[in-house]
Amino acid sequence: MFTVAISLACFSVAFSAHLRSNVTHSTVHQVSALSFYQEEPTCQCMANNAAWKTSERSEAKCIFIDLGAADGNTFAKFIENDYGPVKNCPNGKWEAYLVEANPQFTKELKALEENFPGQVHSLAEHAAFSCEGTTSFFIDVDASHNHWGSSLYGDAPDAVKSGKVQVTVPMINIVQLIAESVRPEDWVMLKVDIEGAEYNLLPCLAQFKDAGLIDRMYLEEHWWFPSVTEQSKSALAQSKKQLLAKHVDIPQYYSET
């Protein structure tokens, strides 16, 4: 949820398509969320499912998926060309999916959806995860830094400072979102800044048969959270290796704010 405070690498003009697997088997990987969270959520990683429907869109575009979208501050950087010249998108076109669990940002994200009809898709009041269900979400109440520490983790530093103020929100399976929204010809950027939930999402995403649909992933790792164990750090590191092997570019990323 942090405001982007670094200069992001420009994406390739060529937008060459990766070779994609056409395997359609369904797999549920038993990676319990309970290994990362004390209580909720309790669903299992769903990395592949033959019932998922691929996009029928025929025109290639840039697809920007923002996990931890806050009030749209990172999306603003995207359309301001901080992620590379938008004019270089395939056919000069783009779509953005803005995923944000904090209900304090719903108004702003809905406004962006209305201002960019058919281009911006607001997934406000949804937590980015590796399966579907509902979960507790802890709010960072400090508006001076744009509520940046809101988290699924009850012991996240800013959640603790805020007295563990919480809401209940649905979870969206990000793997399914990618599978159903992305075409092989697209140029896909995935920003992951979800205050610890990356330790659940990435090991599942790495098992997605078509993870190579993602061209570039900007990942912020919240390794300093108390609940993040050495085991979960190791699992994240291994998942990054698996994604790199599937030709997902993962540049170094960190926001100072």
TrEMBL record:
<dbReference type="InterPro" id="IPR029063">
    <property type="entry name" value="SAM-dependent_MTases_sf"/>
</dbReference>
<keyword id="KW-0732">Signal</keyword>
<dbReference type="Pfam" id="PF05050">
    <property type="entry name" value="Methyltransf_21"/>
</dbReference>
<protein>
    <recommendedName>
        <fullName>Methyltransferase FkbM domain-containing protein</fullName>
    </recommendedName>
</protein>
<feature type="signal peptide">
    <location>
        <begin position="1"/>
        <end position="16"/>
    </location>
</feature>
<dbReference type="InterPro" id="IPR006342">
    <property type="entry name" value="FkbM_mtfrase"/>
</dbReference>
<feature type="domain" description="Methyltransferase FkbM">
    <location>
        <begin position="66"/>
        <end position="223"/>
    </location>
</feature>
